[in-house]
Amino acid sequence: MTRDLCVLAYSGGLDTSALIPYLMENHGVDVVAALVDVGRAKDLEMLRERALAAGAVDAVIIDAKEEFVREFVLPALAANALYEERYPLVSALSRPLISKKMVELAQEKGARSIAHGCTAKGNDQVRFDVSIRCLDPTIDVLGPAREWNMTRPEILDYVASRGIEIPLTKKNPFSIDENVWGRTIECGELEDPWESPPDEAFTVTVDPRLAPDDGAEVVVGFERGIPVSLDGVWMEPLTLIDTIDELGGRHGFGRIDMIENRLVGIKSREIYETPGALALILAHKEIEDLVLTRDLLHFKRGVEQRLADMIYDGQWFSPLADALKAFVAHTQIRVTGEARLLFYKGSCTVRGRRSPNSMYVEELATYGAGDRFSHESAKGFVDLWGLPLEVWARRAPGDS
User: Fold this and answer.
1) Active-site residue among 48, 50, 95, 255?
2) Is 37 a catalytic residue?
3) CA angle, corner 210, sides to 208 and 211, nearest 5?
4) Of 9, 12, 148, 280, which is most buried with the most CB atoms under 10 A?
5) How far is the C-alpha of 38 from the C-alpha of 40, rounded, in Å?
6) Considering only 86-95, 249-258, 361-370, which range has the smallest mean pLDDT?
7) What is the side-by-side order of every strand in the sheet holding 226-230?
């Protein structure tokens, strides 16, 4: 009798490797492992072989790097998207795309279910479940890690007993996720928010104390909100992100250590390495400050925060998120120009910015010779601007 197929979001790590035999043994399905490459994936063929060795009937590698940058990273960059003003949504951005690719594969293979390795405490379970339901409500979504009640050491024993080799030990049990937009590190020693992250947790950024004594400047060029050049050299966005990420990491920039408020209601200690993402968001904001009106900038900040929260909460495919992304895209029409950044011992600062669409007019801003601002108009403007408050004050209770 032919068993039903289940498509598994497979990373090659501990949890998803354990899920292959678990799904076969406890859900009675054959497993197709889907390795969706959203950047920085290493040894994909080795991971594919690991999935097959664990019992998968098929393991498919899907190259989604370009689509991830074009359809997910760049819209998030246009929105300067930072959850709780710090986290550039590394994992949150990849989940809807991985969900989309799994749904496409399930439809192609005739699979009736899709599985993921997310735990009951994490945000990713929401992102996968909701995204898959939005894309194809007829597919069952399985989250076995929410039901198996195994600790991390127990999972290590589980895979070892089935001959599955995972490069992880009980002494170094970090959970890692990375893609084009950055790297996330959690679990193990990091669960104590008082303890400093161990050196071995970081691979993208050097210790800022050991960074070069000479800083590095780079000029980032944007066209309509999209990063297109470094130091005047045109690059595809994927190459540009990788290049500035490596530069920032070499100078110790991009480490985030934060207490994060998860969607499920708990606080967690999260470590991120995101030099490229943070540098590009900083540069992008500088061009926007130069070319957008005050009202548009201020209103957009509220949209950015709402959209960042929705991405974090797994609502990428919602109607409101679509509308907010459309608004943000419209604001990018004039966001063309260059920002000059300096990386130095763990920091990234803006040294200059320019744009052909700049609303900065030196003759209006200067306090020196050549000032063309109408000082005569200022008195009348201030009087009229403050008139409602003056009337309010004159009509205070007790006044006749």
Assistant:
1) 95
2) no
3) 65
4) 280
5) 7
6) 361-370
7) 233-234, 226-230, 216-223, 337-344, 347-354
Strand-pairing partners, residue 217, are 342
Catalytic residue selected from 17, 175, 268, 355: 175
Structure-block tokens of residue 184: 């996330």
What whole-number percentage of the chain has pLDDT above 90?
81
DSSP letter for 172, please.
B
Burial letters 45-82, b for 16+ CB under 10 A, else e = eebbebbeebbbbbbbbbebbebbbeebbbbbbbbbbb
- Active-site residue, selected from the candidate residues 11, 15, 50, 131: 15
**Is 301 among the residues known to form the active site?**
no
The CATH architecture that domain 5-172 belongs to is 3-Layer(aba) Sandwich (3.40)
Q: How many CB atoms neighbour CB 295 within 10 A?
A: 8
What does the block give as tokens for 227? 């990063």
Euclidean distance between CA atoms 295 and 166, whole angstroms:
53
Residue tagged active-site, from 37, 124, 177, 245:
124
- Residue type, position 363, single letter: E
Which pLDDT belongs to residue 26? 94
Residue 104's pLDDT is what?
A: 98
- Above 80 in pLDDT, residue 398? no
Q: Above pLDDT 70, what percent of the chain?
A: 98
Instruction: State the Cα–Cα distance between residues 331 and 335, nearest whole angstrom.
Output: 8
Active site residue 175: yes
> Phi, psi (5° rounding) for residue 132?
-65, -40
Which residue type is seen at 290? L
Separation CA 179–CA 98 (nearest Å): 12
pLDDT of residue 239: 98
pLDDT of residue 40 exceeding 60, the answer is yes
pLDDT digits (tens, 9 = 90+) for 101-134: 999 999 999 999 999 999 888 899 999 999 999 9
Q: What is the dihedral of CA 254, 259, 264, 265, to 10 degrees?
A: -160
Cβ distance 257 to 308 under 8 Å? no
Looking at domain 177-354, which of 3.90.1260.10, 3.50.50.60, 3.40.50.300, 3.50.90.10 is its CATH number? 3.90.1260.10
Q: What is the mean pLDDT of residues 241-255?
A: 98
Q: What is the pTM of this model?
A: 0.93
Strands 30-37 and 5-9: parallel
Domain layout of the chain by residue ranges: 5-172, 177-354, 363-394
Q: Give the residue, 145 or 243, on which the prediction is more confident.
A: 243
Q: Is 124 a catalytic residue?
A: yes
